[in-house]
Amino acid sequence: MQMDDRKQKILRAIVQDYIASAEPVGSRTIARKFNLGVSPATIRNEMADLEDLGFIEQPHTSAGRIPSDAGYRYYVDCLMDAPKLSSEDKNTIEIETTKRISEIEEVISHTAKLLSQLTSLTSIVMGPQKGKSSFGQMYFLPYQPGKAIMVVVKENGAVENHIVDIGEYLSAEDLQQVATVFNNKLKGFSLGQIKKTLLHEIYSELTKQRHLLDNALSMLEAILDDEPEGEKVYLGGTLNMLNQPEFRDFDKVKSLFGAFEEDECLKKLLSASQNGLSVIIGGENKLQEFQDCSVISATYRVNGEVIGSIGVLGPTRMDYAKSMGIVDFMTRSLTDLLSKSRKR
Amino acid sequence: MQMDDRKQKILRAIVQDYIASAEPVGSRTIARKFNLGVSPATIRNEMADLEDLGFIEQPHTSAGRIPSDAGYRYYVDCLMDAPKLSSEDKNTIEIETTKRISEIEEVISHTAKLLSQLTSLTSIVMGPQKGKSSFGQMYFLPYQPGKAIMVVVKENGAVENHIVDIGEYLSAEDLQQVATVFNNKLKGFSLGQIKKTLLHEIYSELTKQRHLLDNALSMLEAILDDEPEGEKVYLGGTLNMLNQPEFRDFDKVKSLFGAFEEDECLKKLLSASQNGLSVIIGGENKLQEFQDCSVISATYRVNGEVIGSIGVLGPTRMDYAKSMGIVDFMTRSLTDLLSKSRKR
DNA sequence: GTTAGCACTCTCTATTGATGAGTGCTAATA
DNA sequence: TATTAGCACTCATCAATAGAGAGTGCTAAC
After folding, report:
1. Does residue B271 share a domain with residue B241?
2. Which CATH number covers residue B144?
3. B244 and B215 inside one domain
4. Most buried in the list B15, B140, B243, B256, measured by CB within 10 Å?
């Protein structure tokens, strides 16, 4: 049995109607709403075929059909209108992203909010991958006796400050000296590389200045320890999930919101998209908690280099065309925005 | 009618049993579980009296009784065992809070997590009140052409960095000069005060150095604009609310989680506690969304000055003695920790 | 003042039956 | 041969009903 034109039309009708209504779609409904020029009985026959092919399923004997994961997949791959976004949404994105915002973190969290607003789904935005970000420069500023503020500028423009213990014996010049060594040795290296290969090099350099060493070492540790394992993840519109009829079930909500609190889970969700727009549908997802969800994600770049990803999470029954359009456009404008702001 | 000793014992029994079981408490249950030496019938009579006094109520004719807000209030004020915390919890708090953490923000968010863990409730922690925090020092660091990193150290020890536009024309010395003016003029003033009274003073001072003024002004604006209105609020254990039987209701969950996303709401919740330990029970709360909740909160200090508050939010039926014990102790150790770290 | 006994109330759960949406099959039709 | 009309059948949903159980309030006895 093959997918002919009519089967495709019917499958598309089922998916679209189910996306809109969240109710199983019957043959009669299709005949009425979509003008296919055939009777419900014919549609029933075709639907039986589509069920055999695995694209739709029946929740119970006397209900209409709902798309299976395979059905959604076929829809996304072959039947769907090209991802599109309304000029209204486009406008909003352009206005919102051109509002001058100075810090990357703010841009990111702002993006998460905007994304969830536009899609009515839950948005997940992964900030610059710190492990991959490279060291740019560092400064030490006086803070309190025995402590200093260490300001680290990454190559991607992110700025972080940490309080570090410096012991009692370091003067401002000593600190300056340490910073100089760091800046010379580390510029351009990722923090991962720093940890592995460069640590002992600095160590030996500083050995020459015996009196600095002991305290400098604790600083080094502080730098690397304070650096969290992975990237920061921002969520937006988690509440939107509560509006979806498929989550009118307490246990589902609990396990879902539980997963939301685990950064690791969210990172895994986004990790699929290596490049371009990625769509993961229902059971294609390996994470138990998200088997009833679909994820649309994409990576964004700064100056050509992938530094993070954004995505939306929703019920399997989501408006793929719209969501994909928004995620795609958002990725582009984020990439634009970040690259532009770096050039200035 | 007066509260005699037996009435008090019965009321305490009702509150405690209801806290534990979340089920209306019947006369028979009390006679069985609490050895009052009287029969269920007698207890029934007393319960009728307690209901007349407004301390308990019946969800429906043939159910047991549950405490009213007034009942909880009486319990907390007069009947409850002194707020107490297990030596186990005490230990956890002491170990967790003495882990060396350098930045105030980290301490705060860590506190929120710990608090919700120990109480199985939702924790709300309000960070240092920025409006009330005072300016300490500022530095400018080179960033990119036309931009600088502005590092602001508050008097309470918090450090923030912002990227500011400086236009094309400012040299490092110019920046240094501006910073010096700021540091001299502003040290010790709250940001509120800065905005109102000192702005024109600096303005006039900088007027003397004409070439700096235009650009310095935009920086000033950046400083004050970047400063958010209020304090940052941290939530922990919001999921715990889903485990409470009183929130097995979708509309409640939705409005509750909606309120969680509004920082303003949460701030209002905590604002009650001006000093010491404050307990707000059910309807005493003015916010619609939290009428079924109680809030226990307290303020913490750095060097005698109140800089924030912590609290827990739970269903009206919460274990007040335990929660109050934990919040109280936590406040103290937070105060200790922050004050100690400031002295070093 | 306390208690035992009992009728009464009300929630909760399970059962039942009616309704309606939707299917699958068969036979008639183009 | 493909399509369609007709019809019996299935199953979820909803409302009504009955029975069980928990708990009360009242009365009368202790």
Report:
1. yes
2. 3.30.390
3. no
4. B15
| Residues A284, A246 within the same domain | yes
Q: Are residues A158 and A307 in the same domain?
A: no
**Per this entry, what is the length of chain A?**
344
Domain boundary among B79, B97, B114: B79
- The rounded percent of chain B whose pLDDT value lies above 90 is 46
User: What's the CATH code of the domain at A67?
Assistant: 1.10.10.10
Give chain D positions with protein CB within 7 A.
3-6, 9-12, 21-27
At residue B220 the predicted structure's pLDDT band, cuts being 50, 70 and 90, is: low
User: Mean pLDDT throughout A281-304?
Assistant: 91
Final residue of a structural domain among B55, B79, B103: B79
Q: Strand A122-126 relative to strand B233-236: parallel, antiparallel, unpaired?
A: unpaired
Say if residue A160 is in the same domain as residue A207: yes
Min distance B295 CA to chain A CA atoms (Å): 23
Q: Which residues of B touch A165 (CB under 8 A)?
A: 102
Structural domain count of chain A: 3
Q: Which domain does B162 fall in, by range?
A: 135-226
Task: Examine the domain organization and report whether B327 and B294 are in the same domain.
Answer: yes
Instruction: Answer positive or negative: Cα dihedral of A111, A114, A118, A120.
Output: positive
Helix-, strand-, coil-residue percentages of chain A, each rounded to 5: 55, 20, 25
Tokens of B5: 């000793």
CA distance B238 to B313: 9
- Taking an 8 Å cut-off on Cβ atoms, the answer to whether B149 and A151 are in contact is yes
Question: What mean pLDDT is predicted for residues A113-124?
Answer: 96
Query: Tell me, what's the pLDDT at B9?
Result: 96
Say if residue A67 is in the same domain as residue A179: no
Residues A273 and A240 in one domain: yes
Query: Does position B115 have pLDDT exceeding 80, yes or no?
Result: yes
Q: Is the CB of B60 under 7 A from strand C?
A: yes
Looking at chain B, how many residues does it have?
Answer: 344
Range name among A12-16, A44-48, A130-134, A201-205 with the lowest pLDDT average: A130-134
Strands A159-165 and A305-315: unpaired
CATH number for the domain spanning A328: value is: 3.30.450.40
Q: How many helices (H) and strands (E) does chain A have?
A: 14, 10
How far lies B43's CA from each of A28, B38, B46, B67, in Å?
Answer: 64, 7, 5, 15
Find chain B residues with C-beta within 8 A of A163's C-beta.
102-103, 159
- Cα separation, B248 vs A246, in Å, equals 17
Phi then psi for residue B66, to 5 deg, are -125, 155
Q: Is B225 within 8 Å of chain A by CB? A: no
Shortest Cα distance, chain B CAs vs residue A106, angstroms: 11
Which residue from A145, A242, A344 is facing B146, i.e. has the nearest CB? A344
Q: For the segment A75-89, what is each residue's pLDDT rounded down to a tens digit?
A: 999 999 998 899 999
